Amino acid sequence: MENFVSVPPEPNGACHDVAAGSAYEIPAGVAHMLRNKSSGYLEHLVFALPPFNPNDVYLRDQKLSPGKTYPLSLPEAEDCFDGAKILSYAFSRPDLSIAYGWVMNDPARRKQPHRHKKSTEFVYVVEGKGFIEIDRVRHPLESGDWIRIDPETEHGLFNEAPEDLVVVCICSPAFQMEDVRHR
């Protein structure tokens, strides 16, 4: 079964399939619902701007019956400069970028740690285990970990397991390659 996000103001209460790596921006005041149609968990991350306030949530009395389901368009996975594969999203308001990525256990793809001149980076580990090297010290990572990396802090993600290390990285201000410096 498919998971989907429903945004009723679209024609006939349109529903969009969601999958790992999906991102969807929902403007304030737009009714929406995320429905898990599978037998497992639907783990998802929500970024709320301004910060989430439970008093700002209004529940509808009626149940939503999905109309036609449309696929969300996902960006093509691309090779990142640090050897990961990523789906990258940039938002103009606020000035931030989000990347969903896979760090593979492939020594040929490993790159040296790097630092950002301006960006603060937040890393959330979605799945897997690995290491983050911060200023030449390795720290273990596992699913559910959040890490904040301040500007000018040398860092790199490493995976030595057979499974991919799946992460979401948020940079503010938005990631730009010219902000990156290597050792």
Could you list some keywords that capture this structure?
Jelly Rolls; 6-stranded antiparallel β-sheet; single chain; globular; mainly beta; 4-stranded mixed β-sheet
Structure notes:
The strands form four sheets. A six-stranded antiparallel β-sheet has the order 5-6-7-14-9-12, with no helix packed on it. It has no helices and 15 strands. A hairpin with an 8-residue loop joins strand 1 and strand 2 (15-18). It has two domains: 1-74, no CATH class; 78-182, Sandwich (Jelly Rolls). By secondary structure, the chain is mainly beta.
Concise synopsis of the structure shown:
The protein contains no helices and 15 strands.
Give the topology, please:
Layout: E1 3-6, E2 15-18, E3 33-35, E4 69-71, E5 78-79, E6 85-91, E7 96-103, E8 114-116, E9 120-127, E10 129-134, E11 137-142, E12 146-149, E13 155-158, E14 165-172, E15 180-182
Parallel strand pairs: 2-4
Antiparallel strand pairs: 1-2, 1-3, 5-6, 6-7, 7-14, 8-15, 9-12, 9-14, 10-11, 10-13
CATH homologous superfamily classification of the largest domain: Jelly Rolls
Order of helices and strands: EEEEEEEEEEEEEEE
Strand residue content: 35-45%
CATH secondary-structure class of the largest domain: Mainly Beta
The overall average pLDDT, rounded, is 78
Biggest sheet character: 6 strands, antiparallel
- β-strand number: 15
